[in-house]
Amino acid sequence: MNTRAPSKRLERAFSWLCMGAVAVPIGFLLVLLADVVMDSTSRLGWEFLTSYPSRKPDEAGILPGFIGSIYLVGLTALIALPIGMGAAIYLEEYGRGGRLSGLIEVNIANLAGVPSVIYGLLGLELFVRALSMGRSLLAGALTMALLVLPIIILASREALRTVPRGIRESCLALGATRWQTIRQVVLPMALPGILTGAILAIARAIGEAAPLIIVGALTYVDFLPSTPTSAFTVLPIQIFNWVSRPQPGFVQDAAAGIIVLLTTLLLLSSLAVVLRNRHQKRSV
Amino acid sequence: MRATQSGQRRIRRHQRALMREWLMERLLLACGLLSIVTTAGILFVLASESFAFFSEVGLSRFLFDTQWTPLFVDKHFGIWPLLSGTLLTSAIAITVALPFGLFAAIYLSELAPERVRRGLKPALELLAGVPTIVYGYFALVFLTPLLQTLVPGLAGFNALSPGIIMGIMIIPMISSLSEDALYAVPHSLREAALALGAGKLQTIFRIVLPSAFSGVAAACVLAASRAIGETMIVAIAAGQQPRFTLDPRVPIETMTAYIVQIGLGDTPTGTLEYKTIFAVGTSLFVITFAANALAQRLTKRFKETV
Fold it and tell me: Which CATH number fits domain B80-305: 1.10.600.10, 3.50.30.60, 1.10.10.60, 1.10.3720.10?
């Protein structure tokens, strides 16, 4: 009895300590958001969204960065989604357990751990120089596509794995070929899951700045990109540009830019959640 | 006559289907092979440009000089200032992230009720989803001024503030990987300890944590690798002054921040300055690759013991 009481108290203290280890970082996130929101209020508004950057902080706007981000992400998705799905389908449906797919899997795992700046160096040499695309939207999108491919492949594989084996077997037993089974039965069932993962991967691409700086996205853009070969900037690079200026007015511009970036991310993530929920409801 | 015609048509249709099957499999395989091509591309780009750099500068000047001034008239190409900057910020990050991440993992895996766990886990994961540019802003605009009131002699750009912020960023990585490791320790071990009269704390510290040790270590190494490769936070808040020091109060420059610095300027391609970013990139790649390989080995050992 005597020895129990202090140990119970110690247990409770330890439990509080551990809870604190979860609560403090989450609290930090709230402080971060509150700080950015407070810094941004003076700038945020319709005018900020529809203006071009300027040398005067209270006239600067985010339009080229915002449009650039939308174009870049759209183009990235267009390139990475089919390739990522294709690779996932091969690994799950064709190459299971084979030596070649083992090699591919090891490669994907390693690529997922490569720092994003290194992808920037690859994009600079391969797309900008060797394939002479210049410092264009297309070169940026191709670089980002390589960066997000491992995530898309991983998510697509998980989605494909949720389709029960029995369904594939019944299709094959009815005389369907392998590709017919995949295209007409497996893919439609797995698609919402794949899209959820893809959207989350794309969300990561929206926040990335480093590889695009290396590939040569501009930091001061007063025009909108019109074709895939145009020069461009994106939200995080515009924010970076404002943060690195000494005048305090630009800090508020940066904060407002961060709110635009986070809102875009939030919208994308909610879309992913909605997709996932609908998928779960249907498959039950 | 009619019978053979329809038969031929059927054969042709069958052949076309076979053809399509063959073609689709190759096409999907090509998508998979792209990952190997990407790896090869990264290795080739890094190796060829670094080779050009080292044939001009020489490996010993890179490894044994303690100054990094490739943009000055008096050029030095010693990697140590950039390396010390990278290791310093990453070490600060791990020092912050390890206690938080580990205790959070213990809470989520051993102590929290299931309902609480399901709510807190995604909230903690949110920290990993915040773009690094936002963290960089926070380090420079919020944390550095705050720390300046506490730490005497702290410069406006320093290693401390971005290091701490990077630590917060990688907490979810350590906590979720460690939690998986703790969770994988068989329940029977815990029950055996409790049945022998051990308390909850004793069970956690003497049974569960030691069993999960290599899994937790793998989580830390992976998180460190992430911190080493992190770019925007240090590019914004740590400064651009390569300095061979372990003083967290003064401006420094990391390997990643240097690559960004050159990426921002218009250094003409083919010059020696241009090649430096590939030599630095190669060093970065080698370090993170070694860390990831170590983490993989630790994870494998963990899976074998549990």
Answer: 1.10.3720.10
* pLDDT for the residue numbered B301: 86
Is residue A224 pLDDT above 80, yes or no? no
- Return the residue of B nearest to A214 by Cα: B263
Cβ within 8 Å of residue B15, ≥6 positions away: none
**Is B1's pLDDT higher than 60?**
no
Is some CB atom of chain A closer than 8 A to the CB atom of B29?
Answer: yes
Residue scoring higher pLDDT (B243 or A58): B243
Chain A interface test: which of B14, B34, B177 (most A C-beta within 10 Å): B34
Query: Where do the structural domains in chain B lie, given as residue ranges?
Result: 2-57, 80-305
> Between B33, B104, B296, which is nearest A18 by CB?
B104
Chain A positions in Cβ-Cβ contact with residue B134 (cut-off 8 Å): 32, 36, 207, 258, 261-262
User: What does the pLDDT average to over A129-148?
Assistant: 88
Domains and CATH numbers, chain A: 62-222+230-283 (1.10.3720.10)
- B285–A contact, CB cutoff 8 A: yes
- Residue B247: pLDDT over 90: no
Distance from CA of A131 to the nearest CA of B (A): 13
pLDDT in tens, A4-51: 556 788 888 888 999 899 999 999 999 999 988 988 887 777 777 777
Contact: B288, A115; criterion CB under 8 Å? yes
- Taking contacts as CB-CB distances below 8 angstroms, the residues of chain B near A86 are 27-28, 30-32
Contacts of A219 in chain B (CB under 8 A): 264
Q: Is the pLDDT of residue B224 over 90?
A: yes
Q: Do B229 and A117 touch (CB under 8 A)?
A: yes
pLDDT of residue A116: 92
